[in-house]
# Entry
Amino acid sequence: MPKTKISEYSSTAADNTDIDGINLAEGMLPSDVNNALRTLMKQLKDFETGAGGDSVTVGGNLVVVGTTNTIPGFAKLATAQTFTASQRGTVTTDNDLSLDMSVTNNFKATPTGAATLTFTNITAGQSGFILLVNSGGYTISAHANTKVQTGALTTISAAGTYLLGYWADGTNVYVSHSGAMA
# Structure
């Protein structure tokens, strides 16, 4: 079978006796040397551009220098995109309301006593939700960099389940809240 692309090459040098049907055996025609090199250069270019249809297997650390234009199946940074499947993150349970923004965007909290709504590792532009299940009606306060609507702390300190939405500007985190949910 002629070796028409890089993935068909053998890791045993002696088994590579042709390239796309061009004879590479000992005593090959002098004209086949030029043809083989030109074919190899084409196959390398096809590999680089993806035209050869070969996959890349990385057996160690993958290092990319420069920029990548497209990697099929991966989102690209700094590019507007349309996703054709749902995108979701994990929900992290944090009952003391000290929420580490480097862990996730979405949290669930069921306090067991009075708690202060605090955000750490604040990242500009990050947003998400907190499901607050305050079944005990514990007092909820806010850290100085947590900005809430007037009356919000009174509302969410009453027994009930609340959905809090938040958005961060890099210094402060702005929180809105729902009423108690049934």
The mean pLDDT is 90. Residues 91-177 form one domain.
